[in-house]
Amino acid sequence: MAPGLLVLACGALAHELKAIVEQHALASSVVVECLPASLHNRPSEITGAVAERITRARERHGDDVRILVGYADCGTGGHLQALCADQDVEMLDGAHCYEFFATSPRFAELQDAEIGSFYLTDFLVRHFDRMVWQGLGLDRHPELLSAYFGNYTRLVYLAQTDDPALRTAAERAAQRLGLPLLVEPTSYGELETTVVSIGARA
Fold first, then answer.
1. Is the overall model pTM greater than 0.85, yes or no?
2. Fewer beta carbons within 10 angstroms: which end of the chain, N or C?
3. What is the pLDDT along the chain (202 residues), one digit of tens a residue?
């Protein structure tokens, strides 16, 4: 049987989407399928991967299955939005997950206050070594730190949860990057309101 709403999402949102579905008792109508979180570092591959999942979902559930693409633009240069419009599926608003977690107005305030901000979410704090340190090759070439981060002026941790262990990990990440830390509690932001609003109608 087709779900009321199928969310095809970035793997970096898996933990948050599971929590939203459980907290709002949406499990009977909302199904979440996640693409590899490693696509976060390869945005040119996101649109093709999502297109393949949309095709697969319609082959499995029929053309009438309701789909929400659980990505913002995420560095695809508008290609993901064009795909969703062509395929008549909904997607999250915003340029990236930092924007919809913080909400668009608050993210704009953070950027306007200090444009040289580097952002982390709960997921990126948990996987800082793999996604950032190793992902940028700093484990092999630490001399590149200033080339990558020399123009940044602070690290902003957008915290979806109040977790002391993640706060400590964010502090360590800031120290390694040589940046002051700002912790901005966000909860699930516009990710939660979008999923709940669409899921309730499914």
1. yes
2. N
3. 677 899 999 999 999 999 999 999 999 999 999 999 989 889 999 999 999 999 999 999 998 899 999 999 999 999 999 999 999 999 999 999 999 999 999 999 999 999 999 999 999 999 999 999 999 999 999 999 999 999 999 999 999 999 999 999 999 999 999 999 999 999 999 999 999 998 877 6
